[in-house]
Protein 1
Amino acid sequence: MTQRRPTSFDIAALAGVSQPTVSRALSGNPSVSDETRKRVLEAAEQLHYTVDKNASGLRRQRAKTLALLFFEEGPETAVLNPFYLSLVGPMVRRCAAHGYDLLISIQQLSSDWHVDYEDSRKADGIILLGYGDYLEYRPKLEQLVDRGAHFVRWGTGGDGQLGMAVSSDNERGGFEATTHLLQRGRRQIAFIGTAGAGFPEVQERWRGYSRALHAAGIEPDSRLQVDSSPDEADGRAAAEKLLARGVEFDAIFAASDVAAIGAMHALQQAGRGLPEIAVVGFDDIPAACLASPPLTTVTQDAHAAAEALVDALIEAIETGKTADRILPVRLTVRGSS
Amino acid sequence: MTQRRPTSFDIAALAGVSQPTVSRALSGNPSVSDETRKRVLEAAEQLHYTVDKNASGLRRQRAKTLALLFFEEGPETAVLNPFYLSLVGPMVRRCAAHGYDLLISIQQLSSDWHVDYEDSRKADGIILLGYGDYLEYRPKLEQLVDRGAHFVRWGTGGDGQLGMAVSSDNERGGFEATTHLLQRGRRQIAFIGTAGAGFPEVQERWRGYSRALHAAGIEPDSRLQVDSSPDEADGRAAAEKLLARGVEFDAIFAASDVAAIGAMHALQQAGRGLPEIAVVGFDDIPAACLASPPLTTVTQDAHAAAEALVDALIEAIETGKTADRILPVRLTVRGSS
DNA sequence: GACGGCTATACATACGTATTCAAGTAGCTA
DNA sequence: TAGCTACTTGAATACGTATGTATAGCCGTC
């Protein structure tokens, strides 16, 4: 027997007040007397009343919901980036703490995602997660700005980029990882990752790597750099390429954990794993400590990242203030170095 | 310059019809003439009109949204189960294909999650993800049923359980994994996992394991079974316990990948990894193929699982039909066996 | 040619909330 | 006691859509 769910009128009747008073009491409006508020809350409790999201959103033109947008370049079957996935939990919790819901969506780059969410009032703001160069998406971001939409993206900010950005201190991470390897006595440190244009984060990591080498009086050797996307097979191929080149190297700094793990596999297969060649990754995905040896890596704090993204977006929505944020990183030393 | 977003009245004015006609034209109501529908669609396109979710949901008392509910037993910092996380992507896509949105939420077991979602009309149905025994939550599920809520859960169904269930064929998976090890010539196969009451899935996997042993004329040995939760450290501890018992064994079947990887680490540390002791896991989490050696495991098809959950729930919402679903599993042989 | 049946559209309304505005009450001063 | 303020509460309304009911036009039939 499913009875109709209670409305604010039912609460009002039970508490002996009017519907507007119920609304005010529940939303914390200070003009309601303590005594009345107490009666209303009791009535609401008793009837298991909860505010109707649709009605509330319609009335106040705000959904109290954020949309999390995963960019996707490959086919539909692609696995989502594990670091991004690890942000989901903390984001949901942070949203809940602010009284927001989180809506998840995956979008092909080619689609009309820019009209989807903000427009249909399902969400008050958008969190964009996707590797790559945001310049490519600039026209879409411009549309968002035109429509007065709020959004944050994960990635490097600065230099005329649109909207807010939250990112790790990639340069610092690259510097620390490389310095760590130098301190371990490594001298010929290879870099796996696509440091070219279009991958600003990897580029920053490379700059940190380069700075650390210079600080130790070493000139970066272009023969020790191999392009690789964050992908196990790609990392493996990159390491094989390095081995095939015949250039001596005693360590690898990979711009992503997944590539680092692939590289370790290739090294082990060639019989040149530890202690001959040390490996350091970047990201600290959950699988990093499951690898063997467990991967030394630059930890991006998923909690901090998730909270910064959510906080920045909600602040923009509610106060209009916008500011980029750069999060500290930390080297996590495990067995692979 | 952010102008007001267009409503169905704006479209109506532009197309020279009434607002109801716009609504009918856009929702595919057959009583609208083709000619009129065409004009309406053009006008909608021109103004970038999209239906207001809140108003629509309020009017039709349906949100066109599903809620994905992660159960959580530990502290707030706990990492979400990787298999569940890998369902998120496919679920989102499947929901989108049905015209639904997906809302994500994490709930402590103790909280009032049962009133949250369905009740506030944020979602038309709930997908429950969480290890453990649903009997424990029975009172909450009963409340959901009482209120006429729709929900599916991932886990074993049957025997008087409430609501719909979708699960892998756990018994079959256990059987295949064990048979595979037997075919590889292994005879003393240990089982890592809590097979007792309260963990019906693990229990089923154990039954498959047991059936395979019997089929080979082997009696399961209770000294070869160790409890373990799906956790790296726990799996490691379980393997150490096995080693300490001094009972001979030449293979391990672990009821979860994470425990299997932990066990492999313990074995390697003790110098008793491959080829001495083979390991097979269950789940096929993304990290399984990153382990070294890559883990042989029982693959639960995340795509199929996600689609089955979403399809079952939407069918229940829209047609009222409910039916449990059991998904086939498949052994993925990698290096660890 | 009147009437029934059919099609396509318009009119009116309801969904449940939040907020504006008005009104009522009590407390206080002159 | 009149008048003013501060504090609560209620009445009325709007948010944008979907749908039940009514209406207008049209065709065909006896």
Protein 2
Amino acid sequence: MARRVRRSSGPLDLRSQAILRAVIEEYVTTAAPVGSHALVERYRLGVSSATVRAILAELEEGGLLTHPHTSAGRIPTEQGYRYYVEAIVDSVPLPPVEQLMIRHQFGQVEYANEHWFRLAATTLASVTRAAGLATPAKPTSAHLRRLDLVSISDRLASLILVLREGALKQVLVTLDHVTDQADLTAVANRLNDLLDGLTATEAERVLAALDPVDPSLELPRRVGERVVRALQAFDGAAIEELFSDGLLNVMAAPEFAQSEKLRRVFAALENRVYLAQLISGVAVSGRVCVFIGHENTAEEMADVSLVLAPYGRPGRAVGVVGVLGPTRMAYPQAIGTVRFVSGLMNELIDHLYA
Amino acid sequence: MARRVRRSSGPLDLRSQAILRAVIEEYVTTAAPVGSHALVERYRLGVSSATVRAILAELEEGGLLTHPHTSAGRIPTEQGYRYYVEAIVDSVPLPPVEQLMIRHQFGQVEYANEHWFRLAATTLASVTRAAGLATPAKPTSAHLRRLDLVSISDRLASLILVLREGALKQVLVTLDHVTDQADLTAVANRLNDLLDGLTATEAERVLAALDPVDPSLELPRRVGERVVRALQAFDGAAIEELFSDGLLNVMAAPEFAQSEKLRRVFAALENRVYLAQLISGVAVSGRVCVFIGHENTAEEMADVSLVLAPYGRPGRAVGVVGVLGPTRMAYPQAIGTVRFVSGLMNELIDHLYA
DNA sequence: GTTAGCACTCTCATGGTGTGAGTGCCAACC
DNA sequence: GGTTGGCACTCACACCATGAGAGTGCTAAC
């Protein structure tokens, strides 16, 4: 859904912005429609409730606020949140204390991408009190870094591939003849020499150039084919995994008291096509992306918002981290937190490959 | 919670059993309290509703049924389900057509434990229309099968451990001196010779026996220490992962329309202590286990039931598969399906290591 | 342009009412 | 003695009316 343009002409004056801001921030904490009276009481606006009412009516005219019913207070529209995020507030950086705590946590975890992205989701969940999301950094194209063959039984071996960006892949290979570990190691060494650093297509070409009659090359060729297939599978695979934590936080929000809405969100998160599209979109944008309600391409996500950021090494391996929460969400804080966590992960990864 | 004993003396006569069965099976499909009239209408009981009412009252007296309120029909108690599962019905084997379909699916997936257990959860979810659960088969004690060292940068290497049961473990090792891949491979070969098949404590002993002054052994010793630590971590770790699929199915059940109950279930599933205890209990039992409502040790799980079965090689590596659903659940079918899937996984694993 | 005042609107909580499903009991029956 | 039809009784639930309260929009005065 493309977001609709505000009907009102020109930008808002400062007072209107202040009031929109107050409505949104009040609504985000209370989850209840905000009335003119409550605003003048709780925010130093310097005008009476009648004036506030006039401005609220204007903002509603402009499509930034709405009414659940005639005699209720105002709630922000998705356009209202969008305007708020883009024009009124900056992202709020994560407080230094929390930054330190998070750094500490990442430091304690073992050096491994797999741990990092999970920890990122967990951290985001606990800090923002929404759901934390994270995908592993998937290499854009699989380059073989090293392979190993481990004998499992007489005619069965485990083929382990290490890719350039540290990803592991394990497949089983059935063997025509009884083969012991020494033979397997020899084959692995040979293939390591031949295929180091290659992509699927490159590896395929190298294998095709091997002497087709040399019987000593039969097993290397056979394993090599599996390697190529595994690399191809890796290239072809969409995002493997979306790790989420703290969905409990979202469940606790009053707008999800009846589980039907939530069910649809869960369903969308299981939709791999949608996820792949979403993630690649965020990855190419290269910065924090905010999707508010119906701005999400999946209609099941119309009741929630996403704040996502890519991380990793552009062009080599990228993943996405972020949060999912109700549209009524503390966007500035969420954006600040997501920005910090993705930046931290970039830092760690850069440090790793420096 | 220990389950309470029925108050009535002796086993039920066949007619009472038939009626209890009818109530449960009706309630499982409709989710609404079952009245005497509905029973005589839909089940060939051969008696009038008045007689059924008398028996229903007896069953209630015995603690197998209950009333939501005076003028409502009967619903089964947890004791009722328990009696039903233990004394009235046998598990219903999965229809051969579905068995074949599942076998086919497992055949299509790449030979790898990691894929199997996830597929098991997905399969269980779709067949039983409840949530499917599965944990990977965790080795009881970590035996090193093989290790590999892959250079990442001048002073950083990735250490990959393959354990006896096929599990992989990857840790990063920082190096004091610039070391190239050839050196790393040499170290890996050396350690493979020394440590093949050993547990953490055994490996530690072997390393301690190495010549402490030989400078060529410095790096092997250093890496070896990391190996030992990784093996220890593996032994000490509780279950790593509970994969679930189809939680959507459970969310769709009317008893979970308000999300609070569900939230508690999710919370319990994130409780690693509880999971570890649950899983080890099922593993030692060696057969399909049914936990109905409050029979679950976690009180958050009081509204749901679990049907779980272990799989794997007892004493070497075991995991658990099963389903989670509302207490109002088609137990015979669930038990049959879980039994089939765990059996199938055993078959596959046996075939692998035969 | 701002404000106080006021009539108006609409939700939500409360309480009364009627309906219907289902029970428990009892007397009659086989 | 077990089984059955009949009947009074109970209780949740849906429905409606009512009143309080919150909040608005409008207007006239400042």
